[in-house]
Acetyl-CoA synthetase-like protein (Lindgomyces ingoldianus), 690 residues
Amino acid sequence: MQTLPYVLPAAAASLAYLNGRLAISYDWALLSSYISAITSSIIHEYRDDINLFNILESHAHSSRASHPWIIHHGRSWTYAQAYEITKKYGNWLVSKGVQKDEVVAVDFMNSEVFVWVWFGLWSVGAKPAFINYNLTGKPLLHTIRTSSARLVLVDENGRAKFSEEVMKEHGFVAKPIDADVPKRRQVQYRFDNDPNMAPLVLRKHIRSTPTQKQQKGSKSEQQPRKLEILFFDQGLEDYIMSLESTRPPDSLRNAQKLHDMAMLIYTSGTTGLPKPAVMSWGKANLGAKFVANWVPLMKTDIMYTPMPLYHSSASVLGICSTLRAGSTIHISRKFSHKTFWPEVRSSGATIIHYVGETCRYLLAAPKSPLDKAHKVRAAFGNGLRPDVWEPFKERFGISTIYEFYAATESPSGIWNRSTNAFSAGAIGRNGTLATILMGPSLAIVRMDPDSEPPSPLRSPKSGLCQIAAYDEPGELLYKLDPSNPGRKFQGYFGNASATNSKILRDVKRKGDAYFRTGDLMRWDKEGRWWFVDRIGDTFRWKAENVSTAEVADVLGKHDTVEEANVYGVLVPKHDGRAGCAAVVLKSSTESKARAEKDRTPHPHPQTLKSLATHLKHSLPSFAVPLFLRITKNIHTTGTNKQQKHIFQSHGISVPKVEESGDVLFWLRGDTYEKFTVRDWERIEGGGVKL
């Protein structure tokens, strides 16, 4: 007994050492949250109440009834109030002929009405298709067609996008309007069956991924249908609120399975037209419950999100996660660095939600004495760049970053709870236990740098993929059931070819199947996952692979750079692609004066020299951008993800670059100098070798 005072501290020290080395407590939080979420989903499927409207109903009839769920624009709605309103919207939708399993397109900016429409559709067993409210013209009509919706519900602010002139331009002709709905709220269109355009199709009773027959389209399905568009003005909202809040029967929501479709959420469209990804009930329930457990979301927590609800990060991991936790979410109409912190403070938010370059924009705003005057304990989201990570935490006094990597169509995700510098900048982290249990479901495979499109390297003998070593970049893959990939990966609605293109077989053994993320990753021996680049964004120069993400991170650490977008450009008489960086410089009195005078951004010569020195010092010679495009704005999606295709289409064409108001420079010796038409002609004539 006398030795006990010495044994206990030694044992505690040993346990602490093992915990630190093996990350046991870290893994326990991750794995227990995952197991709990899986178990909960299976139980709800067994009880036939997997529809998340049922969770809202249970809160409305519990001690959470009077607790706020939604905050927006200075108002709040409790779980009980949200439940009653949702039922009214459900009854109205039934009066409009909406049926169980029907897809209805929803084109709304963030608002409480978005939530009422969404959960109103779920209450009657219908499936919402979330439309990016930034889309217009061809991309907008494309998303509606690919959803199969006959009914489109539109925010009043979106009325101009559906004018008769616009619709006629894209093959739609106005039809007579029903007498029971005021003309100013309703527009109906008949789709002209132009053989060059896919017909609008109404699919009924679709609960999961379309069958092969449905994806190809049967003869009966190819008949054009009317498209009804309803605009939500105040009059319509008031009318719906005057209706009875009768509870829709369970029969409208039952007979749903984990792999069945809950809603359609479109890809961001960074490289082309958006594709409708099937968000299954399994993913919606699992993701929401996992986040609620892992963060964890306490009932007293308030999550603030300015991210668009048409994206899965804000809808599934924001709205649905707070619903599963019984906590509160404050939704802002849209992101603005001017309103972000005032809204966070006014609501008393404890968690802020970000996507893409959100944190960089907040960091670029002028400093304020109120930067740390808030109740925020954590930031949750995806896409926080390594060069912004620690400066953001330090400036705004945020102790924990909950970073994740996932995609709407992806069967799984990677998670990183970061409280110190150890995993700062990583998209995910696993300890020893999580690696043992979850490692077999993941793979990073080497890529063939010379293939087009990029494809994995395979062993000449076995034909199987070559698995990347630690710290070696490769494409991240998630394991699927080879006999039934649709159990975990429901794919793209009505697009079998796009779905099949994401499945890779014969990876580790003959006959297996994996989901292709399309992203290059590396995994280190400490269990940290690092994002390298999007496949297709990495380019070849001087027989070397250049990671655009790596170059952008280095540029972001320069004192004068506010934001950078890196891409490869074709150069006459040269193989591969040369590096080019579109750069937004931090504003200064001098640069503003020069820009106003010349109407184009002109950096100081010392800035150009400093950038060249910084890049040469921080990057291998082949990765240093040979061209700089000084611009005022970086093109982004609605979720603050950078788009490269516009810059890439301009290449190093001086007329195209300058027509857009930008200025192009090229590396000459130890500095960047202005690139002119004469310089381009010299390169084209073979007089300059880069």
User: Anything to note?
Assistant: The two ends are 78 Å apart (CA to CA). The mean pLDDT is 87. Residues 24-47 form the longest helix (24 residues). The first strand starts at residue 68 and ends at 72.
